[in-house]
Amino acid sequence: MWKEEALGELRKNGYKLTPQRLKLVEMLDEKGAEHPSLGEMLGEIRKVFPTMSFSTLYSNVLILRELGLVELFSLGGETRIEINTEPHINLISGRKIIDIDDPGIIEAIVRKTGKRVRLVNVLVEDE
């Protein structure tokens, strides 16, 4: 479903579906729930397009962000890609990130801060 929305938005906004851009969208549709880092995505894409540069990947990810299809966040010095653009919580335990949809917590944060919430990262420790 995310892939179809992303391809539709890209077309609607006049972006060509280059083979590299299409591969990025397909990979994000496949791996997006894992919140991949830009480095991980580049490594995977280079298996198919060995000459793809980091700047090409990054500029395409920024296009997806401008279109409201992804969010970016930093974790452990890496930029991660989030395809769930609804307000939610990322529960982070080590390298594992789980999306939690809890409107009550989101509303409480909005009340406390007076700001719109896009993404909340919560780090938890393993016992």
Structure characterization notes:
The chain is an alpha+beta fold and 127 residues long. The chain has two domains: 2-82, Winged helix-like DNA-binding domain superfamily/Winged helix DNA-binding domain (Arc Repressor Mutant, subunit A, Orthogonal Bundle); 88-123, no CATH class. Helix content is 45%, strand content 20%. The chain contains five helices and five strands, in the order ααααββββαβ. A three-stranded mixed sheet has the order 4-3-5, with no helix packed on it. A two-stranded antiparallel ribbon has the order 1-2. Strand 1 (71-75) and strand 2 form a beta hairpin. The longest helix has 13 residues, at 19-31. The protein is globular, with a radius of gyration of 16 Å. The termini are far apart. The relative contact order is 0.14. The mean pLDDT is 95.
